Amino acid sequence: MESSKINNFRHGSFTLIELLVVIAIIAILAAMLLPALAKAREKARQINCVSNMKQIMHAQTMYSDDNKETFTALALPITSSVKLPNGETVTSGNFYWNFMLYPYIKAFEPFNCPSADVDDTIWTKNFNGNMSYGLNDNLKHIMRAKVKYPSETMLHADVAKTLEHFYPYDIKYRDYLTFKPRHNAQPTIGYADGHAASRQAKSVPPAPLDLVASYGSKFWRPEPSGTVVD
User: Which of 151, 136, 102 is nearest to 122 (CA)?
Assistant: First the structure.
């Protein structure tokens, strides 16, 4: 009787080898699924990021409609008492383009990419911090009509460590300067005509530090000179 019970117990239980096999199979499946899940999660963040950029571009359009068809400046000096969206009042320093667009968006979240590693405190006294989108320095405070190829010229895009703006030559050092290809190497870009879209980072025209190659680029320049390139 006792022998029969022991045999039944053995037949109804996993051996150590069987258990190790099951664990190995689970590990293999996890290794196969986790990259796919991470990619899917980043895709969802990318969709959110494009939505943010669409709001920013819509705000830029409304701002320019109210300001003689001109895009925002990079920064303007504070000349009187200014109340921040968080209730704080400042009397000196600068406020940047995100503050100029805030009245049209009325929210903090759209100024931050969901994949960006930024602090939760969005506004600082000089409005210098924690945006994860930048303004193309070539298009700051210019009239929309001066952009020759608006549907192909970048106004805003994902940025890395320099937060408020970026220059064409930064693309050469995208990992530690300002242009940041998040979302599986597909940065979110807002164009001067008001639309927003993702683009493969490798398709963005580079520009060396001497800036010569960027002068003819429709992507970087409002009025490209010389031989026009994509």
Answer: 102
